[in-house]
Amino acid sequence: MNVECLALPLANPLAQEYQQQNASALQFFAHNPYREQSYRERVEWLQSQSYPHRNQLVEGLYRFNKEMGTHPEALKNIELLKQPDTYVVIGGQQAGVLGGPLYTVNKAVHLIQAAKRLSAELQANVIPVFWIAGEDHDIDEIDHVYWGADDGKRLHKERLPLNKKGRQSASTLPLDPELCTQFLEKFFQGQTETAETKKIRELLMQTAADSRTVAEWFARLMAKLFGKHGLVLVESSLPFVRELQQSIFSQIIENNEQLTKVMLRAADRISTAGYPLQLQVEEHQANLFVYEGNDRLLLERHGERFINRRRSYSRDELLKQVADSPERFSTNVVTRGLMQEHLFPTLAFIGGPGEIAYWAFYREVFELFGMQMPIVLPRMSITLVEGAQQRLLDSLGLSIEQVLTDFTAWKTEWSKNQVPHPLEQQFASARELIMSIYRPLVEEVVSLDGGLRGLAEKNSKLLLEQVSFLEERLIRSLQQKDDVEHVRVQRIETALLPEGALQERKHSFFPFANKYGLGLVDRLVDAPFAHDGTHQLYYL
Predict the structure, then answer these.
(1) What does the pLDDT look like over 258-317, one tens digit per residue?
(2) 529 in Cβ contact with 114 (< 8 Å)
(3) Per-residue burial over 339-348, b = 16 or more CB atoms within 10 Å of its CB, e = otherwise
(4) How far apart are CA 407 and CA 7, in angstroms?
(5) Rounded to the nearest 10 degrees, how much is the dihedral formed by the CA atoms of 417, 418, 423, 424?
(6) Cα separation of 477 and 479, whole Å?
(7) How does pLDDT run across 175-198, given as a tens digit for each residue?
(8) Less CB within 10 Å around the terminal CB: N or C of the chain?
(9) What pLDDT is recorded for position 483?
């Protein structure tokens, strides 16, 4: 088997204890994600709900996914959504350049595997849905890609220049064809030419040429990679999505004060339980964005007025705007889950540690709007291990577990042992000993023939130079050895723990695809990963 599991600690204590199924963390959620009965209970609740917009949802999803060039398998899954016994597992990510970090791929793989497993266990149609957070306007988080450079010794970051104006979101940010081509050329200059390079180049060039925006390029790549595995894509800014969200936007505005109170109570309970707060909750938050032109601006509530940095609205004015122009409104981290729950018959939401810590606030938020929090399933975390890295680890007597859990301590101890010149004192002693023996001999020679002083001194200098020559050769040999060792450590760190983070948080998929082909996606989808919260090692 080319998969191993490691129990890695999470930085967020609430997510850590939730993953460990501790009651102190589970209390903030509606279900235990690792109990089979949770899924049956959730299905029963979903069966009691109605989704009158199923056909409209299917039409919009079908149109969008087909436009993105997806596979018939994904379109088939979309058609299944018309049926009342079809449910979804859903997760999402920002629209990162070249797909963003590896955890985007890992999340898609988890969605596909979870949908397949739950379909079999529940004898129902469960389809995987990937929510593209195209409205995110923090462009600095999505405009770059990383890869190993200098023969794997360092991490290189390459940015795609984007003509961002104001607080523009990825779904409206245009791709400049010339800048995009230049970016891709730099990317391929940083990769080793392989038998797969031509195919990867064609895919990236063609999807970029076909895309008008950053979010669309991301969607086309995800469709090409995962469409044949049935992954359904939805992008948050699509007009049909906004139209279907209209009633929830209105409810959020009407119940804005109650929403804030629920969030403040949740923050108090989480803090009382001893967990750090992932969200800063304040009285004036309206938990919505509104578009003013192309700028996505946060709304705040002050008294009866809702304001952003440009305008002020009464509640009635906002409600009229929602009725007339729902496309002007956008959710924040708090209200996105409500929209997701409203749109889809959601069996489970798959999220990373940060998302789990956010969702701990939301149980009563769902209840306020007559909904039930879906099952929150911790996202699978994966490290790809290449054969070259395994050989480097073996040469240093280092395990992957040590790298991922205790690398700083190992590296400190390793550095102590890299003594550049362990025989320095012995060489110094040898010089003193040689001169203590040779000096009396020189003096005797000079006493017998004063004309030989110059030759005798030159001879003694030559003797010392020979000792120094041997010492220098030793130093050079040790330095070369140390350089080799140092490079090995650098390569391991760059590949497995880049900048102190897990591989999946920095590296992207396409440098791996350039080595192992696009079929790597199929291998990952078919891999026997455990969905138990452990970290997965996948040996390539």
Answers:
(1) 999 999 999 999 999 999 999 899 999 999 999 988 888 899 999 889 999 889 999 999
(2) no
(3) bbbbbbbbbb
(4) 15
(5) -120
(6) 5
(7) 999 999 999 999 999 999 999 999
(8) N
(9) 67
